[in-house]
Amino acid sequence: MTRILIVGGGIGGLSAALALRQVGFAPEVFEQAPELLEVGAAIAVWPNALRILQRLGVADQVLTRAGVIEQVRWLNWDGRLIKHVRFPSTGAPAVALHRADLQRALLHALPASSIHLGRVCESYQQIGDEIHARFADGATVTCDLLFGADGLHSRLRAQILADGPPRHRGYTVWRGVTDCAPQALPSNTALELYGRGQRFGIGPVGLGRTGWWATANERADAAEIPSERQRKLLTLFAGWCEPVRALIAATPAETILHTAALDRPPSKQWGAGRMTLLGDAIHPTTPNLGQGGCMAIEDAVVLARCLLKYGVATQTLRTYERHRHARTTLITNYSRYYGRIGQWQTASSTRLRGLLLSLLPKALLQHVLHLIFDYDAYAVDI
Q1: Residue 332 belongs to domain with CATH number
Q2: Number of neighbours of residue 26 by Cβ within 10 angstroms
């Protein structure tokens, strides 16, 4: 039996474990958190990822707790409509749900005995065809393949690439989920409102809940007191059309998340020997397109398909990496550019942004959406 060790029990790591089990492997997942808590905010599962979840057998559990999104509307900060577009039909809906609900669906599809919590993998060493993974508790686990799904600040990435911390893109992101569902919000619709150096997004996340996110231009070292976070946001978005401030006010203050907008330049090297990376560990992306989790799910399936087709070998991992590099680079770059334009701050640049968006042909928007949504990790030629 091939011994496969996955470092990281987030969306990417659990998806990889499930996809690998589907093709006959029995991976073990090692997660540093002592327990998988219901933390996080909303996560988008676009059609390119939902099709995978259907094949992995967890889509039904996801859909029962998710909100369906059929269109997106872009508005000015005062509520004036700039543009709207309906999502193309792709055979699978676009949905959003609480990240914990998605993680729970994946976790419950795996044997409990294959999940090891409170285990921090600090480094690894390859000796011959074996890998020795070293943990903070002093233990060493030997495996034939090692997959790093340990997120934005991946220790395994640091060991092989030594490329320093991720890059700050000049703005901060806040996220929240509330039981407040204002009647004025159009059903099955995602909204994105633009201001000067600020944005606010709104969408359904299932079970009568509303997810929101906010951005503002800030330095990487901008200080923020968690207890003052809600008040800060209410001040930042004073004067914006409702329900912006109503959603902020209705969200339990202690659940509002705060992160810097970070990503990394694409890297052609994803692994070495019998180790490779997936998800945020190798291609972290700014949250502007909602594709971070989706790409990790795609990685999981392509990796599993490569192992099924080519067998357990170093070259198999390099094949997986080559197949994923172009798409993840494209999405990461698109997301960065979208966020850069969205954060324009001067009066002239914001007027230009509104004009450009209003004049953008819907056919072009539909083409871009098809480019993202139509990708099928089970159909791509490997």
Answers
A1: 3.50.50.60
A2: 13
The distance of Cα 65 from the centroid of its chain, to the nearest Å, equals 18
Contact 242, 196 (CB under 8 A): no
DSSP characters over 267-290: -S--EETTEEE-GGGT----GGGS
The residue whose two tokens read 């990708």 is 375
Q: Which two tokens mark 257?
A: 């998340």
Q: Is residue 52 part of a domain?
A: yes
Least confident stretch, 35-49, 97-111, 228-242, 320-334 = 35-49
Cα torsion 141, 147, 151, 156: sign: positive
pLDDT digits (tens, 9 = 90+) for 170-185: 999 999 999 988 888 9
Q: How far is CA 182 from CA 186, 203, 379, in A?
A: 9, 11, 40
Give CA–CA dist 137/177, Å, rounded: 36
99 inside domain = yes
Q: What is the mean pLDDT of the chain?
A: 96
SS3 content of the chain, % helix, strand, coil (to 5): 40, 25, 35
Q: What is the pTM assigned to this prediction?
A: 0.97
Mean pLDDT confidence for 242-256: 96
pLDDT at 346: 98
Instruction: Assess contact for 23 and 308: CB atoms under 8 A.
Output: yes
Whether residue 357 lies inside any domain: the answer is yes
Closest to 144 (Cα-Cα) out of 1, 272, 314, 4: 4
Q: What angle do CA 373, 149, 176 make, to 5 degrees?
A: 65
What is 2-48 written as a DSSP string? --EEEE--SHHHHHHHHHHHHTT---EEEESSSS--S---EEEE-HH
Q: Is 227 within a domain?
A: no
Residue 168, classed as helix, strand or coil, is strand
The tokens 């912006």 sit on which residue?
244
Q: Residue 42: which domain range?
A: 4-166+263-373
| Cis peptide, bond prior to residue 34, ω within 30 of zero | no
Q: How many domains is the chain built from? A: 1
pLDDT at 38: 67
